[in-house]
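COMPLEX REQUEST
Ligand: alpha-D-glucopyranose
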Amino acid sequence: MKLTETQKKFVEDLLGKMTLEEKVGQLNQDSPSIVGGFDVPFEELIEMVTDGRISQEEFGKIMATAERDYHEDDIRAGMVGSVMGNDPVKANELQRIAVEESRLGIPLLMGFDVIHGLRSVFPIAIAEAGSFDDDLMERTARMAAKESRAYGINWNFAPMLDVARDSRWGRVSEGPGEDPYLASKFARAKIKGLQNSTDSTENYVAACTKHYIAYSACEAGRDYNTTTMSTSQLYNVYLPPFRAAMEEGACSAMASFNDLNGVPCTVNSYTLRDILKGELGLEGFVVSDANAIRECVVHGIAEDDVDAGIQALNAGLDMDMGTRIFYDHIAQAVKDGKVSMETLDDAVRRILSVKVWLGLFENPYVDQSAIDAYAKALPENHVALCQEAAEKSIVLLKNQDNILPLNKENKFTLVGELADRPDEVVGAWSLAWQKDDCVSIKAGLENVGAKFEYYPVCGPEGELNIEELKSAIDSDSEIVVAVVGEYTSMSGEASSKADITIPGHQREMLKKLVAAGKKVVAVLMNGRPLALGWEAEKLNAIIEGWHLGIQMGNAISKVLFGEINPSGKLSSTFSSVNGQEPMYYNHPNTGRPGTKSKFTSKYLDAPIEPCFPFGYGLSYTTFEYSDLKLTENKDEIIASFILKNTGDVAGTEVAQLYMQDVAASLVRPVKELKGYERVTLAAGQSKEVKLTLRKCDMGFYNNQGKYVCEDGLFRIYVGGNSCDVLDGEVRVAF
Ligand code: GLC
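STATUS: Structure written out below.
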């Protein structure tokens, strides 16, 4: 986000005209309040859906017709800076009040959660990051931005950049996995895609990097839980994607719910002012997470709302999402000298700057043609990009005796409730999908004329249907495709799980199919890495399908029948059994790394190695790495090697480059991803691949938050995942 001098002057002039109350109004984000349309208090309604007295579907129907207060009078009075929503007609209505009826006509930011697409729903981030395709990740963000503006949204609460190492945490689904380097590349791609198309105001939005900071390090993987870590861990693991996003000019950030080392991120001036606005150079603003300012009282860092609001604004939190604490108390706090006018002006200036950068003063409304573009069906190019992203995010985890790809002429048996659930392909934080756009796996198989019998048998919850299982076992087809995994509701916010094996009776179903002598191909639909120890050992094949978005069914069927050769890799480690989490590849070695020897770091009752490691993914062909050579120039280490397609079909390999700082002033990870490249090779084709490691990227942050490059020995690894690698070493003097 760069403002011209003229734009900066416009902001200063406008700021100079604002009253104290109008300034406070810009710091207030309002959501439409539910005010009626049903015969119980709203809180009671929430209780009823929570304890199951009414279903989600019934709740949705009530919400659809509920009366809402959009706070028009406050907008008219200039007391609202932003609203939430994705209805273009309502957006224009509210914007018109702000622009044409308030004293200064300051337009509204229209914010919404567009995490992996709006109506064109792409794969969840943990899956898309596994494509290791930066260009793809940018293109999906660009399309999400274009759709957002058409739906009246000019501020996306995305990208979510939480590096996550504990699969018990439900929000691993929303972020780019466990690696800081991959997460940083994801961050750059997403900010470029969301923000950097200034050819028209219909094509870009303000990004909101979240959740700042270290929310994913919640103790025990329990959402909203406390986080504690060293400065070096904060800087080396959790900050890198935010640093990358700020370098790309991200417009805003969302402070996270968690307390970090005892200070909630909502009121943490060290992380907000010193690091984010100081060191990383955020020029836009920081918004709280929903209700988070009020929760500072619950945290025990503030006595009451007033105290929490004053602490937050003074700590560098600029906009209040949903509590109205700023709206109610900041004007008086300024009058009482508890918040300086300079602090208030800085927050307002940052918010106005984003509005100016978005072009909202010139183009505040949604153009009718943009609304019409999506009135009926999604444009073909949107559907095509959803399918491309889905295809590239599929990971082949096991393919025993090359049972895959299947022959489309041969009949097989399809089982699993999830196979016939188009509503379950979209994953967590999909808020604007339309069922007609969604292709279930069963529909995808039907679309290509596959021959199969279908028996739901069971899903992630509920009983196993014995009759249907018996029919599946009695069917004359040897191969069973079992679609198993999680409901969307089992990942995302407030969805931490202590048991991350395949839920319900699905594993029981798989065991019975295997016991009956069937050859079982599992297709996973899940939002988190699952503990797959039994499946990895006993099933014939496993396809990791994640929640791939609206084109999931078509993408999976193309992989099942070999129309496309899977190329995705894992952006997160998969453990074998519960209890191993957190499990991640880039860990310190310890003085006693786990081996068979007794007195080493391991469990008595679980394997030492992961079930499937970071960066892992098979293909329908095979690849061979050879002849690793390391060369060095003033600024770089270049790893060159021969990559050969040793199979009989073309394929794309994600070649990966890792490094290890063998001896440093702090223990360093046994491996750190530092480069990757998607390489497509015909059957039998070889190619020399060069992956370059800049010497300036070989350092780390110490416990003073200082970046250091220390002379010494480095091991360099190349391979198709973080375990099976060629290695070399180089001694570097910086
Ligand atoms: C939620 C989430 C955040 C989201 C916000 C607005 O609680 O933590 O990711 O953007 O509220 O919906």
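REMARKS: The pocket of alpha-D-glucopyranose is lined by residues 113, 157, 210, 289-290, 493 (CB under 6 Å). The mean pLDDT is 96.
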